[in-house]
Amino acid sequence: MIEDKLLVLRCKKGSSDALRRVYQKYKDDLLVVAMAVLNDNAAAEDVLHDVFEAFVRSLGQFRLTGSLKGYLTTCVANRARNINRH
User: Fold this and answer.
1) Domain 2-85 maps to which CATH number in 1.20.1440.230, 1.10.1740.10, 3.40.50.2300, 3.40.109.10?
2) Domain boundaries, given as residue ranges, for the chain
3) What percentage of the chain's residues is helix, strand, coil (to nearest 5)?
4) pTM
């Protein structure tokens, strides 16, 4: 959790290495979630990339108050469910 807070802080300061570390740290687990909802590998990868793109755009206002993995997992699950609804 402390590592995640430091990574988020570094991301906010523009560190591409920190963002890469967050992505590498959680991508496999997040893809599993997206695949469970969508049952389509390409769509799951698109969801993962969409969520990380939105994460980067929101870094200025983002405040980590809990688990970064939990936050990203919720974002991925919600995005995948939205795609299923459409």
Assistant:
1) 1.10.1740.10
2) 2-85
3) 80, 0, 20
4) 0.93
